[in-house]
């Protein structure tokens, strides 16, 4: 069966409506909100600060830690409050996606904590969280070679689609999900996961579509940072 038209009317290579803001949590070193359609992520950075327990301290660089959680009220189905196996896995994935562009050499013996909370979920929560976390790190002034931008590309029936919604993920024929994160300036892919099946040619097509989508996401991220500092100069 052919998937000829997306449920929300978007083109197959089109992301949902995007929105980003930085500096939303005043007591954090850096913070951001990133919205992809109906999925909303908030990220806050604290540190660099002394790292405990001391055996985790690295004399050569700071240690990045992420705590990700899908808040109970963000989804319609019942969810137990607090961390789960999935949230622990996404926390680790987020660190792995962000670390390659960070220079933590100036923060020896310290820790930098990123808290990522999904306040509204409609698929793509890990990618929205990575986009928010990347912005929050930039807002905190952590040295970065590039911003990390992230999007999920999926396969529904015979079509490759960018930025799936929950309705598309629950398609009767099943959907393959391929979250991607990258630095569009450096060209470095820092996250590539797959839940489902794609051929080699389909993966190549998906990555090409992800790169184009991430370039658009980065424009929104950069604008959010510029808007904050334009406002500060008024």
How do the helices and strands line up, and which of them pair or pack?
Layout: E1 18-22, E2 30-36, E3 39-50, E4 63-70, H1 85-98, E5 110-120, H2 125-139, E6 149-156, E7 159-162, H3 166-169, E8 175-183, E9 188-192, H4 200-233
Parallel strand pairs: 4-5
Antiparallel strand pairs: 1-2, 2-3, 3-5, 6-7, 6-8, 8-9
Helix pairs in contact: 1-2, 2-4
Fold and architecture overview:
The protein has 4 helices and 9 strands. Helix 1 (85-98) packs across helix 2 (125-139). It is 29% helix and 29% strand. It has a 5-stranded mixed beta sheet. A 4-stranded antiparallel beta sheet has the order 7-6-8-9, with helices on both faces. The chain is globular. With 234 residues, the chain is an alpha+beta fold. The protein has one domain: 2-Layer Sandwich (Ribosomal Protein S5, domain 2), CATH 3.30.230.70.
Provide a short characterization of the protein structure:
With 234 residues, the protein is an alpha+beta fold.
From the 3D coordinates, which CATH architecture would you assign?
Answer: 2-Layer Sandwich
Number of helices: 4
Gross morphology is globular
Major β-sheet strand ordering: 1-2-3-5-4
- Cα distance spanning the termini: 56 Å
Beta-strand residue fraction: 25-35%
Helix coverage percent of residues? 25-40%
Question: What do we call the CATH topology?
Answer: Ribosomal Protein S5, domain 2
Radius of gyration from CA coordinates: 18 Å
